[in-house]
Amino acid sequence: MTGAGTLDLHSTFACRGCVERNPVSALLYDPHHQAWLYAGNYALIGGVTLWTAALHRRKSPLWWVPTSLVTAAYLYSWRHNRGVAAALDH
Known about the structure:
The structure is a single chain. The protein has helices spanning 2-14, 23-28, 34-57, 65-89. With 90 residues, it is mainly alpha-helical. Helix 1 (2-14) runs antiparallel to helix 3 (34-57), helix 1 (2-14) packs parallel to helix 4 and helix 3 runs antiparallel to helix 4. 11% of the residues are buried.
């Protein structure tokens, strides 16, 4: 999850001229203060990790779902960012 989040943020800031189209992310997106976005991102990952651990301790059969969903969302966003950057390069 941490690796996927890092890839997503790196690709977000690597794409010069890209516009953040996710309305929630657009509120937080500030290319001049990237450290705040990275810090918030890792706080979110920490929260999801703690939630997943609590579900696992309670022996929930779906303990793996939160981490999997967040990781999949980060990877989707990373792939999307790479596509947008590639389109701008042409």
